[in-house]
Amino acid sequence: MVNRRQFVYSATASVIALGRGPAAFAAEYDLIIKGGRIVDPSLHVNAILDLAITGGRIASIDNNIDADAVEVIDATGKLVVPGLLDVHSHYARDDEGPRICLSDGVTGWVDAGSEGADQIDDMVAIARAAPQPARVLLNIGREGILPNGDTHELALADVEAAKAAIARHRDYVIGVKARLTEGVAADDIEVLRRAQEVATFFNLPLMIHMGQTASPFSVLVEQLKPGDIVTHMLAPPPNAIIDNDGQIFPEVLAARRRGVWFDVANGRTGHLLWDTFDRIMDAGFWPDTISTDGNTTSRNAASVIDFPNVMSKFLNFGMSIDQVVARATLNASRVFPLFRDRGTLNVGAPADVAILELREGRFEFVDNYENLRVGRQRLFPYETVLEGRRVPRA
Q1: What is the distance, to the nearest Å, from the Cα of residue 77 to the centroid of all Cα atoms in its chain?
Q2: Does residue 339 lie within any of the structural domains?
Q3: Which of the residues 57, 63, 80, 288 could staple to 36 if both were Cys, CB 3.0 to 4.6 A apart?
Q4: Partners of 209 in the beta sheet?
């Protein structure tokens, strides 16, 4: 028999349950991104679709997903692309780097040799604490990037010190970096040989910083193995990847055929000149990956600003949006094993998403020599989703 107190409790509970209505039931998805143009080269998709996420992974891509979600992002008029992967950055220079680039759509990054063996612990600590997947390349110069040159004294290219540093941080050091510009390296051929010795010992890729080297690039590139990376590929002469007639050196073509990657790394000084940009693009030797060579101060540098701005240079001067996105996502995911399950919006993949705004108008783009060009389109960061969660803007 139900007493008065039990009856009142039961009736009240029923009213509360009825009052909740549909909200009493769990939402089908954690997040739905609605109405955006999904551009995903990995899926050969460029269409207005909805994207649903649950449990930190992509759950569905479809027309007009009509389901309950904890959160909805209206992406109408925006581009929805896989999270951007910056394979040449310097975000491990300080603690703010990872957070700043994340709000620009960068959901994975590699620091390209900010530090060498002597300060590797500091660089790895920042990568470990980053909200997004992050790893580092060890500078063959044991003191890292130096104003007067990383290996201006050949003794700084210390093979044994580099090996010991990598062995200590084998989980976070995923490659070796050698800056070979004349004045940075005392002997570019020998510095490259030592860097390759270290990289090969651990079966890691080597990234070389080219442009304005003492030795012809056609000689340097022959020392690279499959999986190695040439960065600053648009650097002007002397010793660019093109000859005086604008032809790509045969040794460069051979390197690409054997699996060497060619990366942009826009940067600030000496890495991109519009005239050289045109000649290389016109020759049909397009980059495998687009990267920033950026750090926490890049937003104040007109030549960089952010990753979407660097992508916009190629969108205005040679590539389609699908081709540009591929070089910031899909292609980048193939360079380092860290990113193999990223760079895609395929169902089941980690839900890392960059929502970008593509604006039409008059936009100025600057090379590394203060030469200005005007384009009619520019990409701007709008929202970032990391592992299924919306990221606050920095």
Answers
A1: 24
A2: yes
A3: 80
A4: 179, 231
- Please check whether residue 90 lies inside any domain of the structure: yes
349: in domain: no
Amino acid at 116: G
Same-domain status, 65 and 206: no
Beta bridge partners of 81: 354
**CATH number of the structural domain spanning residue 18:** 2.30.40.10
Which token pair is 251? 């040794």
> Residue 98 maps to which CATH number?
3.20.20.140
The answer to whether the beta carbons of residues 366 and 302 sit under 8 Å apart is: yes
Q: What is the pLDDT of residue 318?
A: 85
Q: Are residues 192 and 74 in the same domain?
A: no
CA 245/CA 247 separation, integer angstroms: 6
Same domain, 229 and 177: yes
Asked whether 255 and 230 are in contact (CB, 8 A), the reply is: yes
Residue whose C-alpha is closest to residue 190's, from 235, 230, 141: 141
Question: Residues 217, 254: contact at Cβ < 8 Å?
Answer: no
pLDDT at 64: 94
Residue 336 domain flag:
yes
Nearest to 32, CA basis, from 75, 2, 83, 3: 75
Averaged over successive runs of 10 residues, the pLDDT of the chain (394 residues) comes to 38 35 68 98 98 98 96 98 98 96 98 98 98 98 96 98 98 98 96 98 97 95 98 96 94 98 96 96 97 95 97 96 98 96 98 98 97 98 98 86
Give the closest residue to 248 by CA, choosing from 261, 233, 260.
233
DSSP-derived 3-state class of residue 329: coil
**Are 158 and 230 within one domain?**
yes
| Structural domain total, the chain | 2
* Short-list 171, 107, 169, 173, CA closest to 139: 173
Query: By three-state DSSP, how is residue 193 classified?
Result: helix
Strands 79-82 and 84-89: unpaired
Say if residue 202 is in the same domain as residue 300: yes
pLDDT reported for residue 393: 82
The residue range of the domain holding 338 is 82-343+354-377
